[in-house]
Amino acid sequence: MIYLTRPSATLSLSRRGAGGEVLYNIDIGMRKILNLFFLLIILGTLYQYRAPLGKQFLLLRDNLGAFFAKTPCLEPMPYALGSFDPKFGISQKYFLDALAEAEAVWEKPFGKNLFIYTPADSSFDVLKINLIYDFRQQATSKLASLGIIVKNDRTSYDMLKAKFTALKAEYAAEKNAYDMQVADFNRKQQAYEAEVSFWNKKGGAPRQEYNKVEAERLALEAESKKLQAAQLRINNMVDEINALVVALNRLVASLNLSVDSYNTVNVSRGESFEEGVYTSDGTNREIDIYEFSSRAKLVRVLAHELGHALNLDHVDDAKAIMYKFNQGNNSTLTQADLAELNIKCQVK
To answer: Closest by alpha carbon to 105, among 330, 287, 315?
Structure first.
């Protein structure tokens, strides 16, 4: 008896129908090939239109996020510590204790837990709080090291402006003198190198000429050290000027002064001065803290950004936690803060 084997990816005889006709089924191997073919077509189409589809996905995600967003205050908002820069010179415990104080600013008058620290929670909706060191804290630390305390008033602005004007003039004079000295040093060094090359080509210099060239070398070394010291002084002046610029521009904004912004020296910055920022893209929520001059200011800026995390807007009361500038000294909510909180938390 001869047994026939069927091809794995062809039509195979299955059974006869009632009228004796032959019925066929598509072989499993052929079905897999067809499924793979259609899958490749779908994937190719998605790849070709990935840009417009990606935009539509983000739009859908944002709309769904808004639709399913929880009303603030119904349950505590989980938060965790994100990036933490040690250049601030504080411990994580110090920062977390300040965060706990900032929580209490909102929770005590409201009579309910609004936030909860969940260090091990990695859920997508956990609020990440980051401590980021950049030019803002660098400027604050520089001024503090010089004994300069910046207050949010016109007197402080006038004092900083006077210091900035005097220091800028001193810097200009020092820089001009330094540039002239460097140019003179370079001429002397070129002459020295030419003289050394001349005598080396002759196989060496007589004792008298050698002593002369050696004296020139020692003089150049001494002058180079003086120039390095002058450069260090100028660099320190630049750091101080730039720190003053950061503080002055901040005061110009917070005091709403009709003056032009101050420019830094040898540095180009397009950033505005913000001590902290709350951001949300519909999926991730973060608070970035950039600058504080004291623990009280740290607690205040944390409380302000936690307010934004509760969807609170800025209020007009200059003493309020939710005022657009961190210029108040109080660590308690004002009536404007409470009114905004009650609106967002739907308290009647």
So the answer is: 330
Output the domain CATH number for residue 178. 1.10.287
Distance (Å, whole) CA 65 – CA 316 = 29
Domain boundaries, position 315: 77-140+270-344
Which tens digits make up the pLDDT trace of 253-312?
Answer: 878 787 777 776 755 444 445 788 999 877 789 999 988 888 998 999 999 999 999 999
In the block, tokens 């009303």 appear at 71
* DSSP one-letter code for 321: T
Alpha-carbon distance of 310 to 341, in angstroms, equals 8
Distance CA 262, CA 38 (A): 63
DSSP per residue, 129-169: EEE--SHHHHHHHHHHHTT----SSHHHHHHHHHHHHHHHH
pLDDT of residue 275: 85
Q: How many domains does the chain have?
A: 3
- For residue 325, is it within any domain? yes
Single residue among 222, 254, 286 that ends a domain in this structure: 254
* Sheet with 127-131, edge to edge strand ranges: 115-117, 77-84, 127-131, 285-289, 276-280
CATH label of the domain that carries residue 274: 3.40.390.10
Domain end position, chosen among 34, 50, 68: 68
Residue 263 inside a domain? The answer is no
Q: How would you label 20-52 residue by residue, b for 16+ Cβ within 10 Å and e otherwise?
A: eeeeeeebeebeeeeeeeeeeeeeeeeeeeeee
* pTM summary value: 0.61
